User: What shape does this take?
Amino acid sequence: MTVANMLNLTASPALSILIWIVLFLAALYFARRPFHRAVMSFSKIIYNAMRFSAASVLSAEKRLVRRNREVLMAAGLESAERIVEREFDRIAAAVTRDLEGYPNVHRQLSEVITKLDEDYTESADVPPSLPNWMPIIESIAKIKHTGDSMVANMLSEINRSLNDQHKKAIEDYRNSTAARHGILNKMMPFWRKVEKSLASISKAITNIKKRSKTVDRYMDEYEQIRSKSDRAARALSTSALTQFAIAGLVLLIAIGGAIINFNLIALPMSEMVGGASYIGPYKTSDVAGLVIILVELTMGLFLMESLRITRLFPIIGAMDDKMRRRMIIITFTLLTVLAGVESALAFMRDRIAHDMEALRQTLAGAEEVGLTNSIIPMVGQMVMGFILPFALAFVAIPLESFVTSSRTVLGALVAWLFRLFAFCLRLLGNVGFYAGRFIVNVYDLAIFPAIWLERVILGTKNKKLDMLEAENPEDSPLVEEAVDIDSFDKTLEIKEPRE
Amino acid sequence: MKKIFASAIVVCILIAGCTDTKSRSTGVYMLLDTSGTYAVELKKAQKILNYLLGVLAPGDTLAVARIDTGSFSEKDILSKVTFDERPSVANNQKRAFMQKIDTFVNSVEGSPYTDISGGILQAIEYLNEAGSGKKYILIFSDLKEELAKGYKRDIPFQLPDFNIIALNVTKLRGDNIDPKEYMARVEDWRGKVEKGGGQWGMINDLERLDNIFTN
Assistant: This one.
């Protein structure tokens, strides 16, 4: 049926159009309820599907967050254990260093104290007293003589003897006192020795006390991590982020160093393995240079593991000390040999570069002038070639930090992505839900004459309600209810009886 | 232990299998026109050769041949070399090569005829044998071919993977009177090369020699 035929239903095209419109509206009116149901069902499907997906993603995110927290706590525990262990090692070393010789110090102190005691006893000796008969003679010497020469002689003799004895006694007393003073004087170094020993013991004890306080602090942290407190989790998370950033920065610097190292040895390697052969798309000489650098890095890694500075390979850390020492010697020797090789390659590089420059100048028709014969660049390159492998060996430390912290950081990132994805899914579900409602309203708007007629026919009450909804759809209970995400079923219930 | 040994052998074989010494090398065959008045231009050719010696790397091949009456001959190859893989040895080879070319340029005698086609055929044969990955034939000539009586060069060139670059294509007296002759001459060679599957290029400004290896 063409448009012209459609307009020829009656003699008047306008009337024909009107008839068609009425028929079309009637058809839409009768299809209204199934259409509403279909659209609402479809929007419900979208809404529920998205909501379930979002719930599933959020559940996964929760599991991931839980797992992240467990990993974080485990890493924190391990780290705290390492720190506490290290502190105990330090205390053990301090005790060994400071208190190992304590028995010896104790013995020395005892000896010194005994000696002091003896000296003290000696110094306490009473000075020699006057003979017992001296008071008698003194009394006799004081007797006044009567003029008898014999008595006078005897008394003067007694007086002289008494004076002699007095002088002798004074001299003995002075000698004895001087001897005691000498003994006391000799005691001074022993006192100082005692004081020094006691001071060293005091220092050692203070040091141990200080360390024990540090251990206490770390133990507190350890306990907090063990109790899995939120504070510990936050602290560990922040620490992991910081570690990740710092280790990443140091690794970037190390990569720069490795690139310089590579450029230093790539050219001379072509002298050894040839400059025209390729492994895949890469020059064999470049690959060989890269392999040398990677081997150096590996040796550095093993060296750090053997020294128990890093713990990337638990099997190395768990080796017995003898084996570990052997491994330290082997890795360090290999590293030194490789550093020597690099130094030699740097020397060769300087020679080749010099030769190439000379050739270029010859080809350009110039005399070989301007080529510096100074050995400084060559020595500089050789020193760099020797030092860089050892410098690269320390990459193991930031690498370990990076690997350890990246687990936490990546976990947090993935959790954040999950949350974002869940948000998008919920948003999509809500958009689907409201799109369904929008289509239903647009449909009703298109057939409003039929609905209006229905209201007129069915009565005033329903008409009022419908008018109210049509005038202010945003304030209708349907919309208000629909704002709540879980009210979809309710929305349908509210809408359907009214329709 | 046996497994480790077997794995090591497999890895070695794989690495050896991956090692490719020829496919990435460059082969350059330069034809020098020694006919008539063009012989005086050879000093320029020497500069081009010096440039080539400067840019070619270890493993590359370089050959220089003269264009004379009958150029389809190994006897016309003045010097040829495949540079050693070690840079120091390659540098010495370059010095020796330069010396040879210097001697030739100082003692060259002009030839009465110009067999460019024969030279190109010889170059194709040589570079195919050398097995270079990238093949360049440089023609240092005014592109005016003059064959001696009895010489036939109506063979189509087989030039897939070849780059043919004409260098220093000077204008002849007749070209100045009628430039169409020059253009027709250049177009004729372009047609021959492209018909054979090769790529044609022309560099007259010797300051732009770095364009040789842009293809």
User: Anything to note?
Assistant: Chain B is about 40% helix and 20% strand. The radius of gyration of chain B is 20 Å. Chain B touches chain A at residues 15, 18-21, 23-25, 50-51, 53-54, 57-60, 83, 85-88, 90-91, 94-95, 98 (CB under 8 Å).
